[in-house]
């Protein structure tokens, strides 16, 4: 059985105003000032955008070895694996929208998104490119539906359900990213 290293990184944050924050409010690139978005669609899209950005923030400044580090053995989860997994999930959400033939998996067999997350700069670059492409395609596909209550696809799921599920999926994995990043280099903050 693999054993985790006894050496633990020292906890730290870049923030100076609130010690539980990732960065100081004035340096936070996510838009949290002013009135919130108007309407349900813009609210849901705003949460997805913020969680997407949060995931990128949790990964910034790390090299391929750090991004691919599996912090809680025997789990295969890593920050790089999360990027690849979310690219795969973005693609799958488009499958929910249609009765057409399903788009193929990006990385092949089940769990290949995590298993293939290896410490190689080409894998890192491809994962980020895959995620950006799949996010843009899913956004465009969802934008084609004006009615959030419209039922689509084989399972007759509503557009609203897909959009809420996106918030849930990114929020859950940003929580994983918090813990993974802390294990990699000790950096903390939501």
UniProtKB/TrEMBL annotation:
Skewed-composition ranges (Basic and acidic residues): 1-10, 23-42
Pfam families, sorted: MST (PF04978)
Disordered: annotated span: 1-42
InterPro entries: DinB/YfiT-like, MST-like
Gene3D superfamilies listed in its UniProt record: dinb family like domain
Protein name in UniProt: Mini-circle protein
Taxonomic source organism: Streptomyces laurentii
Organism lineage: Bacteria, Bacillati, Actinomycetota, Actinomycetes, Kitasatosporales
